[in-house]
Amino acid sequence: MTALLEARGLRVEYGATVALDAIDLALAAGSRTAVMGPSGSGKSSLVHALAGIVPLSAGEVWLEGGRLDTLSEARRSRARLARMGMVFQFGDLVPELTLVENVMLPLQVLGTRAATARRRAVEVLEQVGVAEVADRRIGAVSGGQAQRAAVARALAHRPAIVLADEPTGALDTVSSEQVMDALTRLSVDQGTALVVVTHDHRVAAHLDDVVVVRDGRISVGIPA
Ligand SMILES: Nc1ncnc2c1ncn2[C@@H]1O[C@H](COP(=O)(O)OP(=O)(O)OP(=O)(O)O)[C@@H](O)[C@H]1O
Ligand SMILES: [Mg+2]
C-alpha cells in the first residue's frame, strides 16, 4: 500500500548539530504511531521534518505520493494546512483570540463558512473537554486547557495526518485520556495517520506502533 506520508533517508542539521540521520519511516492511512526517546534525541525534529517545516540536509519526504520537501514554501504550507493537523510542543495558538476562534482559524483559511467553522470548533472543543472555556481568550486559560485547544485545532478539519508533539505533556491522566480518545477516534473514523510524540507509556498504549529515536536515529526496540 502507498504510504500517506513517507520519509526516506532523512537528515536534519542545525549548524554543526546533526539532529536526525538516515531516517526511513512510512505511515499508512489509519496507522497510529508513538514516537518516544530521550530529550534531545530528535523527536521534534522528526515531526517538523515530516511536516516540511525544517529544511533537509539529505533525504526526501513524500506526501500522498508526491514530494513535499521540494515544493515551494507556499505550496508546502498549503499542503500542510489542508492535509495535516499539527500540535506543536511549545504551542502556537493566538493568545488574543478565544479558544473557539483559534480552532476556527484554519477552517476559515480553508474556505469553511464562519457558522459551520464555529459549529465544528465547538464540537472538537467538547471532545477534548474544554467546551466550558470555549469563549475565553487563550491568554486567560490554563496551560492544559490551551494544549487541549491546540489538539482541537489540529483535528477540526479532519486531516489525513495528525502530527502531535507531546500533546498531553501538560495534562493530568483524565484530560490526557480524553485527548487520546479524540485523536484515536478521528483515526479510526477517517483513517487518519496519527503520530504522537510522548514520554508517557499510558499515551503510547493508545497507539499501535512505537518508534524510538536515539541520537537522531530510529532505533527499533522497546523504549527505555
Ligand atoms: N533550532 C535549533 N538550533 C540548533 N539546535 C537545535 C535546534 N532545535 C533542536 N536542536 C538540537 O537538535 C537535537 C534534537 O532536538 P529535538 O528538539 O528534535 O529533540 P527532542 O527529542 O524533541 O527533545 P525533547 O524531548 O526535549 O523535546 C538536540 O541536540 C537539540 O539541541
Ligand atoms: Mg521535542
From TrEMBL:
- Does the keyword field hold ATP-binding? yes
Q: Which residues belong to any copy of the ABC transporter domain?
A: 5-222
List the keywords (alphabetical): ATP-binding, Nucleotide-binding
**Entry keyword annotation includes Nucleotide-binding:** yes
Q: Which Gene Ontology molecular function entries are recorded, alphabetically?
A: ATP binding
- According to UniProt, the name of this protein is ABC transporter ATP-binding protein
